[in-house]
Amino acid sequence: MNRFALVGLLVAAACGGGNPSTQQTVGAAGATLQAGAATLTIPAGALSADTQVTLREAEPQHAGRSVRFEIEPRGKSLAQAAQLSIRVDDSNVKVKMHGGDDGLLDVEVEDRNHGDFKTSLGSFDSVEVELEHGANCTLPCPSNQECDDGACKAHGDDGAPTCSPVCASGLECDDGTCKAHHGG
């Protein structure tokens, strides 16, 4: 961990803030920041000059949303889109993400096995996450299965490797390798 990220974590801890936060100076080489369930991947070339970037988890501003992630400096345009990936520990859910203007963002599966969903950002802003739960299973599922929209199905491969950095738009992580999306 570089000293800027460490300073950001220490400041958040010293202030007694309960919400995960990280801060890092990011330049033309890009970087990956993580706070709570969110990972922000800023690709090389997205920023032309060193920029102090903050990623923090916050309380949602709209009813029915589970969490908000703030990315600062708010409004900073990027030459290449950043990827915001959010882990959701619920296999029976549909994930929607809303931008700072409350408009819906395109959401893709980043890693089906680990419950990671992503969106592309052309500028830094806030993103609120809305979870829509599918139908519940009428009977409890056996230990080797999980409820998926009302039906018991085999668990995903929870032990599968993850991708770092987050896969580009149009790709999803499959056992540690970025591959084209598959149905399901």
- From the N-terminal CA to the C-terminal CA, the straight-line distance is 37 Å
User: Beta-sheet strand percentage?
Assistant: over 45%
Total strands: the figure is 15
The shape is: globular
Helix content: under 10%
Secondary-structure element pattern, one letter each: HEEEEEEEEEEEEEEE
Task: Please provide a written account of the structure.
- The chain is mainly beta and 184 residues long.
- It has one helix and 15 strands; from the N terminus they run H-E-E-E-E-E-E-E-E-E-E-E-E-E-E-E.
- The model is unreliable at 1-16 (pLDDT under 50).
Please give the structural blueprint:
Blueprint lengths: L2 H12 L6 E6 L4 E5 L2 E5 L8 E8 L6 E8 L4 E11 L5 E6 L5 E2 L2 E4 L4 E8 L2 E8 L11 E4 L2 E4 L16 E4 L2 E4 L4
Antiparallel strand pairs: 1-4, 2-3, 3-6, 4-5, 5-11, 6-10, 7-8, 7-11, 9-10, 12-13, 14-15
List the keywords.
single chain; 184 residues; mainly beta; 6-stranded antiparallel sheet; 5-stranded antiparallel sheet; disordered N terminus
Offer a quick outline of the entry.
The protein is mainly beta and 184 residues long. The protein contains 1 helix and 15 strands, in the order H-E-E-E-E-E-E-E-E-E-E-E-E-E-E-E. The protein has one helix spanning 3-14; strands at residues 21-26, 31-35, 38-42, 51-58, 65-72, 77-87, 93-98, 104-105, 108-111, 116-123, 126-133, 145-148, 151-154, 171-174, 177-180.
